[in-house]
Structure formats: structure tokens, C-alpha cells
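Exercise 7. Given the encoded structure of a 700-residue chain, write a plausible sequence.
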């Protein structure tokens, strides 16, 4: 039971104890209500608990707990939603920033498809609404589940919340396939957004939403669907996910079907017969932007023909058949107060601008990157300068230029540091390189913390609750210093005189949740594992390529160690033969493996894990006849371009290499094949004609 001492008579100790009790009690009612669907108190009693919690917090703000119930309104904690795997990944889009980028996009399409430079390529142009994307699954015409994008593979299930949207058809009108996933954008009209914020301000709410996008996201991700229902959310449908049977031959036709099923489709979408028409649409809608009832941040162009979309496929996380043409960044002027230096996970020293805060594109900006010291020198940024800054979409703010007339007389040019501002080690910049690096390695606090943050981040080990702030705390308090330590954290608690749950900002629940999140990652996919190591130039796509080519952790580890030991031996040659891995990337991988302390950290980590899962082909394509096989294309192909052939092979789980070796499984020889074909014959590698290859992969 909650004590009834009036809030203004509580001592700090009483307040602390009571906040702890209230957090526990409210959470238990929440569980009963949301999970068991069986409320244990009346609404009025529940509200009274929350009000008392809020009143105590208002009087003792320093005692607000990290697991306070008050923190769970607004943005609900992610762990409150069930995870849902998308039957087909939800992709993001590549960006174009000017007309030339868009022309290059269409030229690329033509090359990939092997079309002449004047062949017509129809594009559908659609306003790019600034909201949040969701996937809606319909089975036998009925809405069954809906989820946010999440990391593209797995999102949060928000079915109950989506059901409160008036724009969402619960059943599809007319004929529809057995299974169809519709993708779209949940957004808020500008007028609704303003009205809602005004109402919040009038009601004394402390937090107002920064923009319609944040408002839409915050409103959809509510644990209580009643809150979502009260928010003016809308929905446009614009893309297709999994489908059990074709629904259209083109995107334009598909949009008509969406309308027929009962979805709202943006009326401004337009079918364009070529790139000029698409660009004209972009400029026209850009001019009319302020009059639109919702915020848009650009235009999306999509190849109209579905058969071409299928052939074009995707690279990494974005389709080749679509691109987002962004509107120019919003700019503002402010004062550059000082130039600071941050140290990244690989030791790169990056100058950044500390600015007098200014609003750009609806967001307050007080820091901006200055990229590297050459850029600072080239643009001659100095502390005290008035500068132009810009922000484009989600992109980190940039400092564009100095206004020379406003420079104070005593402004001094920037002098790059020769020592690391974090650990004091030498910071060196090799001739011809743009980046200065700290030589402290893992003895540099900044590098350790940044590496650990990267390790736990969403596309790496994805440990919820291990963001910047907590990594920083756990490191500073001596609890973690390496990835393996993360997995020893929970065991270290036993018998500890200062368990995490008793530390400021932590509670029993938050510590427990963190341990659960860590435990869940003792089994990890090989590509995530590789990416998490934070090797220079090994981003997600490269990590995936490595996982695909080496398949198992022990294979990869041995091969990389061999490649590091002998930089033109077999292992090295095999590594650099992988399509898209050149000597520069291979060099960075080898450098990583040449360091004993890295090998030690890697093995130490592996010992803490239950399993690193073998890589299962591009998208689980183990059934394909070429999954795991190494193939080399040579000569010119008739039916498809070389790029298309390679992309198709990779999508089927094959490894595409650039040169022939004894490890090659197939050489696909087009006309005029030369030395690679000869080498294949010499080594006794199976040679296939283009037709034989197509038959093998079931494409003819
Ligand atoms: S198509 C594979 N169409 O933009 C194609 N996206 O930067 C997937 N967006 O995540 C997206 N309007 O949230 C598409 N008409 C539109 C869009 C649109 C807004 C958003 C969407 C997506 C992001 C990609």
C-alpha cells in the first residue's frame, strides 16, 4: 500500500522509498492490464497512483527513477512490444540530392537492364511523406498484423494501435490474394499536429512534439491503444511486401489496386514517361511544398514495370529500382563558438563545431560535424566565425561556409592537435590521408567506449538498453572494458558489494532487463558478429559478404589470420578475389587480425557465447542449387548484363569471385571469354554456357 503522508511533508528518504514502491505497483497493474487483459484496480485508483508518483517526482526531480512509470508515457519502451519478423525485409531508399543524381540513377537502371540509352523507362513519382513506415499483413482479405519497420528485418508489432486508424481497411474490398503485405506511411497532417500540440500546451503537458514526424511515431508507439486512438494519425499505402500471387504488372496498376482494396493512396502520385517528366514533377511539387497539408521531404521515383523491378533487385538494404530525391537542405546562420575534437571507435579524430544553438528545419542544432581537418583548413573555419549550417532530412547537421564579413578581427586559424584529447597518445596523420588518428588503440577510453557502443548497436549485437549512456556508465564504473565483459556482467553481480541495481539511475528492473537482453544475444548470426567487431571499412554489407564466403566463424578466423600473416598467399588471394573486396578493405581486415590483442578479444568473446550461427546464404536461400558455390562470370552475356547476372547469383546465395582458382565451382563463360576461361580449363573447373547457367538456376 502507498503511504498517505501528504507529498509536501515527505522526507527525501521517504520519497525515494515511495517512488520505488509506486514503480513496482504501477508496473504490476500495467502487466495485468496489458498482458493478461485483466485489470487489478479501478481506473480511478490507477490514476491516483500515477498522480501521486508524478507529484512526488515534481517535488524531488533528482529522485526520478530510470524505470519510473512517468517515463513510460510519451515514448513507450521498446520492450513493451512484441517483435515481428517481416516476411520480406522492409528496405530503405538510396538518396539523390540533385537532378544529376537522378539522371545517373536512370542511366544505371538502363545499364543494369541492358537497355539502350534512349529506351523509355517509365517512373512513378510520389511525394515522400515524412512519417514512419509500417507493414500491414492481410490474410484472406482480413488485416491480421501490422508492424513498424524496426531494423528492416524485424519490427515492433503495433496491430492494436493500427486498428485505431480510420484510414486502415480492416478487410480488403474485392478480390485479393490469400496473403498480401501492404507497406505505407503513418503520418500526421500539419494542421492536426499544430492543433494537438496547442491542446497539449493548454493542458499543461511538459513535452510537445518537435514535428509531425515525431508526433506520428510517438503516437503509434504507445502501449495503450486508447492513446493512439486519440491522436490524428493517417495512412498512405505505397508499396508491396510478401504476396502469395501477383497483383499487378506495374506499380501504377498496383496503386489502382490499393485504392480498389480501400487504401488511401496519395492523389499526387504521377506516372512519368521519362526522367525529364519526373524531374519536372519534383520541381513543381517542391515549389508547392508549403501549401501541401502534410510535410514532405522529397520525391520517391520508382521504376514502373514490376518485371524490371524484380530483375533490378536490391543492393544491401535498398532497392535498385527506386530512389528518394531529397529537397535541398534547410539552412541557417549562427556563431561557431569553438572547434571541438571527438575520437571515434577506430581512433579517428574528427573536428566538430560547437554552435550557438539555432533552429534549422524544426530542430535545435548546437553541434555539427566539420568532417576532417583538411576541410576545416580549406574552408578556414575559425572560432568566433559566423557560419552557415544546414540539415537535410535525418542527416547530421553540416557547416557549409563562413561569412567572411562577419569574422572578428582576432579570430585565429584552427590548429589540429598532435595528441589525442582523450588519452594523450600521439595523434598522427599520414601523408596524403585526410584523417588524423589516435595511436592509443584500446588503451584510449574513447575508442573502447565507441567500440562497445558499436558492438551493442542495432545492426550488430542489438543489445537493447546498451546505448551510449549505459555503455559509458558501465565502462567508467569498471564493469566492462571489452565485448566479452558484457557477457560476464550478470555473473559479476553475484556477491558484488555494489550491484548494478543499487547504482544511481538503475533499478532492479532495468538491470534485470539488460541482463535478459544480453542473454538473448549469446546466439548470434555470423554476419552480425563480424560487423560488431568494428573492423575499419567492414560495414554491414562487407560483413555479410564475408559471412557468405566463409560461412563459419572458425573458417573465417583461420583464413583471416593466414591472410594477415602472408599478404600475397592463398588466403589473401582468396579474400581479395571476392567481388567487392579490394586490397584496401582486405588490408584493414588483415591489420585487425595482425594485432594479438584483437585475436585475444575475439576468442574471449567467442568463449562467452553459446553459438555463432553459420551463415545461411543471402536470404536463407539454402535450397538454391548455387547456394554457397563460388562462381566467376567472364565474357559478355546475351540475356542479361554482367551486373545483373552477378546480382542474381548473389541473391541465390552464390559467392561471386573476380578471378578463377581451384576453389571456383563454376565459370560462366559468355562470348569472347579469354584468360579466365583458359585458367578454368587448366584447373578442371566446371565451365557453363550462359544457357546452362540459366537452366541451373531455374531461370530459363
Ligand atoms: S517506398 C522499397 N514510397 O521513405 C521501397 N517510401 O527513405 C520502400 N517514404 O522507409 C519505400 N514516402 O518511410 C516509399 N511514397 C513513398 C514514400 C516512402 C515516404 C519513406 C518510407 C521509407 C523511407 C525511405
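Solution.
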Amino acid at each position: 500500500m502507498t503511504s498517505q503522508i501528504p507529498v509536501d511533508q515527505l522526507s527525501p528518504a521517504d520519497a525515494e522509498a515511495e517512488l520505488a514502491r509506486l514503480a513496482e505497483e504501477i508496473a504490476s497493474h500495467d502487466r495485468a492490464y496489458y498482458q493478461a487483459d485483466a485489470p487489478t484496480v479501478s481506473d480511478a485508483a490507477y490514476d491516483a497512483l500515477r498522480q501521486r508518483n508524478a507529484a512526488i517526482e515534481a517535488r524531488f526531480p533528482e529522485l526520478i527513477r530510470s524505470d519510473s512509470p512517468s517515463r513510460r508515457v510519451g515514448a513507450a519502451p521498446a520492450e513493451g512490444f512484441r517483435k515481428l519478423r517481416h516476411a520480406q525485409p522492409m528496405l530503405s531508399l538510396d538518396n539523390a540530392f540533385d537532378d544529376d543524381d537522378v539522371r545517373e540513377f536512370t542511366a544505371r537502371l538502363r545499364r543494369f537492364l541492358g537497355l539502350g540509352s534512349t529506351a523509355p523507362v517509365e517512373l512513378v513519382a510520389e511525394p515522400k511523406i515524412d512519417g514512419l513506415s509500417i507493414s500491414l499483413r492481410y490474410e484472406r482479405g482480413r488485416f491480421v498484423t501490422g508492424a513498424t519497420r524496426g531494423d528492416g528485418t524485424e519490427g515492433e508489432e503495433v496491430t492494436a494501435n493500427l486498428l485505431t486508424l480510420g484510414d486502415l481497411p480492416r478487410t480488403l474490398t474485392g478480390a485479393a490474394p490469400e496473403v498480401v503485405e501492404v507497406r505505407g506511411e503513418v503520418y500526421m497532417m500539419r494542421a492536426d499536429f499544430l492543433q494537438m500540440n496547442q491542446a497539449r500546451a493548454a493542458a499543461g503537458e511538459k513535452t510537445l512534439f518537435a514535428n509531425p514526424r515525431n508526433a506520428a511515431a510517438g503516437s503509434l508507439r504507445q502501449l495503450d491503444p486508447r492513446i493512439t486512438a486519440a491522436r490524428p494519425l493517417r495512412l498512405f499505402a505505397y508499396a508491396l511486401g510478401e504476396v502469395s500471387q501477383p497483383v499487378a504488372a506495374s506499380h501504377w496498376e498496383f496503386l489502382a489496386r490499393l485504392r480498389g482494396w480501400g487504401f488511401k493512396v496519395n492523389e499526387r502520385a504521377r506516372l512519368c514517361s521519362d526522367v525529364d517528366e519526373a524531374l519536372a514533377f519534383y520541381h513543381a511539387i517542391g515549389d508547392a511544398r508549403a501549401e501541401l497539408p502534410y510535410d514532405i521531404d522529397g520525391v520517391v521515383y520508382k521504376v514502373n514495370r514490376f518485371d524490371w523491378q524484380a530483375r533490378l533487385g536490391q543492393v544491401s538494404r535498398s532497392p535498385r529500382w527506386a530512389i528518394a530525391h531529397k529537397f535541398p537542405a534547410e539552412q541557417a546562420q549562427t556563431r561557431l563558438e569553438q572547434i571541438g575534437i571527438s575520437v571515434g571507435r577506430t581512433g579517428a579524430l574528427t573536428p566538430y563545431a560547437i554552435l550557438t544553438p539555432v533552429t534549422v528545419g524544426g530542430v535545435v542544432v548546437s553541434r555539427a560535424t566539420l568532417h576532417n581537418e583538411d576541410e576545416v583548413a580549406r574552408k578556414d573555419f575559425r572560432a568566433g566565425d559566423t557560419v552557415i549550417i544546414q540539415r537535410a532530412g535525418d542527416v547530421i547537421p553540416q557547416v557549409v561556409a563562413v561569412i567572411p564579413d562577419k569574422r572578428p578581427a582576432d579570430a585565429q586559424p584552427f590548429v589540429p592537435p598532435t595528441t589525442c584529447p582523450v588519452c594523450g597518445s600521439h595523434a598522427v596523420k599520414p601523408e596524403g590521408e585526410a584523417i588524423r588518428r589516435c595511436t592509443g588503440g584500446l588503451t584510449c577510453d574513447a575508442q573502447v567506449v565507441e567500440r562497445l557502443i558499436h558492438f551493442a548497436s542495432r545492426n550488430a549485437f542489438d543489445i537493447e538498453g546498451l546505448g551510449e549512456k549505459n555503455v559509458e556508465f558501465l565502462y567508467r564504473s569498471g564493469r566492462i572494458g571489452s565485448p566479452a565483459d558484457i557477457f560476464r556482467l550478470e555473473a559479476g553481480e553475484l556477491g558484488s558489494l555494489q550491484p548494478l541495481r543499487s547504482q544511481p539511475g538503475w533499478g532492479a528492473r532495468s538491470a534485470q532487463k539488460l541482463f535478459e537482453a544480453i542473454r538473448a544475444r549469446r546466439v548470434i548470426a555470423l554476419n552480425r558478429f563480424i560487423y560488431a567487431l568494428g573492423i575499419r571499412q567492414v560495414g554491414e554489407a562487407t560483413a555479410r559478404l564475408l559471412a557468405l564466403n566463409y560461412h563459419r566463424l572458425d573458417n573465417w578466423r583461420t583464413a583471416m589470420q593466414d591472410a594477415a600473416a602472408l599478404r600475397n598467399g592463398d588466403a589473401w588471394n582468396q579474400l581479395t578475389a571476392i567481388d567487392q573486396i579490394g586490397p584496401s578493405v582486405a588490408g584493414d581486415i588483415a591489420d585487425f587480425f595482425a594485432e594479438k590483442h584483437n585475436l585475444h578479444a575475439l576468442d574471449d568473446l567467442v568463449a562467452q557465447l553459446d553459438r555463432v550461427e553459420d551463415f545461411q546464404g543471402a536470404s536463407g536461400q539454402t535450397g538454391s542449387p548455387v547456394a554457397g558455390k563460388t562462381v566467376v562470370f567472364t565474357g559478355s552475356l546475351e540475356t542479361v548484363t554482367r551486373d545483373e547476372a552477378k546480382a542474381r547469383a548473389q541473391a541465390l546465395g552464390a559467392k561471386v569471385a573476380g578471378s578463377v582458382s581451384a576453389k571456383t565451382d563454376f565459370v560462366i563463360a559468355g562470348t569472347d571469354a579469354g584468360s579466365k576461361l583458359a585458367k578454368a580449363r587448366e584447373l578442371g573447373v566446371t565451365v557453363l554456357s550462359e544457357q546452362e547457367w540459366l537452366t541451373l538456376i531455374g531461370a530459363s
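Remark. The domain at 525-615 is CATH 1.10.150.20 (DNA polymerase; domain 1). Students should compare their own answers with the one above.
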